[in-house]
Amino acid sequence: MYGVYLVDDERLVIEDLIDNVPWPENGFTVVGWSTVPARALQEIKELKPDVVFCDLRMPGSDDGIKLIKKIKDSGINTEYIMLSAFAEFEASRDFFTMGGFDYLIKPLEHDNAALILEKISRKIAEKHHRLPLYQFIRTQTLDFDDLVTYVIENFSKRVTLADLSEKFGMSQTYICDLFAKHYDSTLMIFLTDIRMKEAGRLIKASDTPIKEIAIHCGYGDYSYFCRVFKAHYNQSPTEYREER
Questions:
Q1: Pairing between strand 28-34 and 79-85?
Q2: Residues forming beta bridges with residue 104, ordered by sequence position
Q3: DSSP-derived 3-state class of residue 40
Q4: Fewest beta carbons within 10 Å, which of 19, 37, 141, 230?
């Protein structure tokens, strides 16, 4: 799994992220956190996480931008997600100038956090020169082949690591490791790509209302479906249909 480090001067924000963001489903684990930038810098140097979630504004001299600069100056190769209140967003230009990947507005929406995790995991996979998502590799792990078949056949349903772990008798960490090893992906990216492929096909090939297509593809929240679709196709579902 990819390692994540969380930095925010509000402990409640950190606890909310730890408890409510689907880290394992997206191939991530929280390896550390701190409310003190100086301590965070030291631990990040030691842990070398793949992603740092960092508050833009923190008390004292080490705000988020300065902390990120110090991390980069130390030679740590990581990606950055900014945590920012909406009113502070204009001041975030330096974050993107320094190569920041994306941002989350406080108060946090967990669906947005999950979507960003899907996007950042793709970038990390590309950075590590991983193989295409759907290059199927047969292995001696036949149970995993059965698990993958189950995910494909049940893409329209709610599929979680916990459910798969119970059904196939594998630990959640082991399932994540298998997706990383054989598909260079995560469960959620794998599932999202299947859902988006089917959604795109139905939008182009039928006049079925898009809300019904969203439900068929496993998205009860239509607005979230639209955000995921746009992130995948760089178009809204309506724009995608208009091009057929």
A1: unpaired
A2: 83
A3: helix
A4: 19
